[in-house]
Amino acid sequence: MGEAAQSSPGELVCVTGANGFLASCLVKCLLERGYYVRATVRDPGNADKVSHLLRLPGASERLELREADLLTEGSFDDVVRGCRGVFHTASPVTAFTVDPEVLEMIAPAVNGTLNVLKSCAKAPSVRRVVLTSSTSAIRFMPEMPFNSVLDDTSWSSEDFCRKYKMWYYLAKTVAERRAWEFAEKNNLDLVTVLPSFVVGPVLPKNLSSTALDVLGLLKGTLCDAKKFSIYPRMGYVHVEDVALAHILVMEAPGARGRYICSSTVMDNDKLGELLAMRYPQFKVPTKFPESYKSKYYTLDTSKLEKLGLKFRSVEDMFDDCLENFYHRGLFSLTDTLY
Ligand SMILES: NC(=O)c1ccc[n+]([C@@H]2O[C@H](COP(=O)([O-])OP(=O)(O)OC[C@H]3O[C@@H](n4cnc5c(N)ncnc54)[C@H](OP(=O)(O)O)[C@@H]3O)[C@@H](O)[C@H]2O)c1
């Protein structure tokens, strides 16, 4: 613990859920910095899910794929053994789910996180674990005062999330809380990163659930109904800044506690206006249902800024995301790039 806790380039680190949107970018950044990466996926034989990782620069020399499932106890024991740092990003990500308590959301998020942490606690080589939480774990509470500044002391209310069946938000909140309890009891050096809504280029073959939300927003298919509107006021953050944040808190000897990771926080209407002006070729909605309006709040990101992170703008993250969507052929040829 303490000053010796950081990992450095040249060392072996583990990334769970490595084929995901965020984790793929994290693996890319780690390889670029010279790390050896042990990457866990559920099915290393699934080319659709892993081939983009195998093609990354440095992968043939320094990337190792391992199979592990969050729901299998002990699945991560072998995987984390010998690693200096562990980035636990794997978790089911979708705002909509039918059988929340057991199946899709809460069990893998909460029990899965504990499984990974238990394996880390048994591995003497592991000096620090960085857990990907979410601003979902801090911004849902019944009585949030207008103009709140949410910081690393803020927590979403589990009762409030249950009452409104916000299962993803509940899962992230409970998973992070249990992680802190476990780390304290087991003297594990844990740091958490809490990204807001992540936007940017998508490396995996298939779009992640949040990338599909962005696509729907741009195409105007997400405008009037529930989907994007359930996030009435959101922070947005570039996927590469999130990856960098994970590495910064892993490397910084003095990193402690929770790190909110976000660029600008905006109401949906304002985001819609910005995107509609910037990309007039799309039908980006600028009005969202009143009932979904949320209270004004901001996010205190000073802890990451003090570690040197300069967050990219909302314009930059959407430009980079769109460029990626164009390369994937997701828009017709008549849609010109801004
Ligand atoms: N995207 C955002 O806006 C956002 C914002 C804040 C926080 N986060 C957090 O960032 C992390 C990554 O999210 P993402 O957007 O990159 O999502 P993603 O692309 O859906 O990646 C999720 C990863 O978790 C893995 N996973 C899910 N259930 C699993 C299980 N039972 N066992 C093993 N692996 C499992 C998935 O594997 P499969 O491909 O095999 O399903 C996938 O690799 C999550 O912890 C999420 O809560 C995301």
TrEMBL record:
Record-linked InterPro entries: Epimerase_deHydtase, NAD(P)-bd_dom_sf, NAD(P)_dehydrat-like
Coiled coil: none
CDD domains: FR_SDR_e
Molecular functions per Gene Ontology: oxidoreductase activity, acting on the CH-OH group of donors, NAD or NADP as acceptor
Keywords linked to the UniProt accession: Oxidoreductase
Domain NAD-dependent epimerase/dehydratase: 13-254
Oxidoreductase recorded as keyword: yes
Highest taxon of the lineage: Eukaryota
PANTHER family membership: NAD DEPENDENT EPIMERASE/DEHYDRATASE, TETRAKETIDE ALPHA-PYRONE REDUCTASE 1
Protein name: NAD-dependent epimerase/dehydratase domain-containing protein
